[in-house]
């Protein structure tokens, strides 16, 4: 699966929303969540559990599937120079409404510690642009996450 992602990123293979392996979408999403978790340069067990919880809740994956996705995503993230690999996969293979859910997961992860850093906010804005989710939609889901977590702007 990692080889297939590399082929897509190198342009040797094209991604198609209708035929894309859902696991690749999950891995790309997980890698973006890991990037957000690493915004403070640490990736602790609590953050890993939060990423797993977000993926499980959004994609309804079994424990075994979550484990496989996390292993692939951590390896892919470690080997990637930048987030463009992952955002391209999400942009090219995930329907718009689900891309909005990816942004929602990123906001939820960013607000998990009760505050958001400038880097986290900047990362989410960059991801929005790269996966073609408009600012208005991002703002809407950000406010929804804040309300759900009982936080204010």
Keywords:
73% helix, globular, mainly alpha
Overview of this structure, please?
The chain is globular and about 40 Å long. It is built from 8 helices and no strands. Helix 2 (22-37) packs antiparallel against helix 3 (45-59), helix 2 (22-37) runs parallel beside helix 6 (96-111) and helix 6 packs across helix 8. The chain is 73% helix and 0% strand. With 153 residues, it is mainly alpha-helical.
Percent range for helical residues? over 70%
**Stretches where pLDDT falls below 50 for ≥5 residues?**
11-19
Average pLDDT reading: 86
Structural category is mainly alpha
**Tally of DSSP β-strands:** 0
- Distance, first to last CA: 40 Å
How large a portion of the residues is in β-strands, by DSSP E? under 5%
Rg, rounded, reads 15 Å
- Total of helices: 8
Shape descriptor reads: globular
Major beta-sheet overview:
none
Give me the strand/helix succession. Answer: HHHHHHHH
Reconstruct the topology from this structure.
Elements: H1 2-10, H2 22-37, H3 45-59, H4 63-79, H5 84-93, H6 96-111, H7 118-130, H8 135-149
Helix pairs in contact: 2-3, 2-4, 2-5, 2-6, 3-6, 6-7, 6-8
């Amino acid at each position: 699966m990692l080889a297939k992602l590399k082929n897509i990123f190198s342009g040797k293979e094209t991604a198609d929303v209708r035929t894309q392996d859902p696991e690749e979408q999950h891995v790309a999403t997980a890698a973006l969540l890991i990037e957000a978790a690493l915004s403070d340069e640490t990736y602790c067990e609590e953050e890993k559990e939060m990423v797993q919880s977000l993926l499980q809740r959004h994609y309804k994956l079994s424990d075994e599937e979550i484990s496989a996705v996390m292993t692939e995503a951590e390896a892919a993230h470690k080997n990637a120079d930048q987030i463009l690999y992952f955002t391209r996969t999400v942009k090219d293979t995930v329907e718009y409404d689900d891309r909005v859910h990816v942004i929602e997961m990123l906001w939820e992860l960013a607000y998990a510690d009760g505050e958001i850093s400038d880097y986290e906010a900047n990362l989410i804005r960059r991801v929005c642009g790269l996966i073609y989710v408009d600012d208005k939609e991002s703002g809407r889901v950000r406010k929804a996450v804040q309300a759900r977590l009982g936080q204010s702007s």
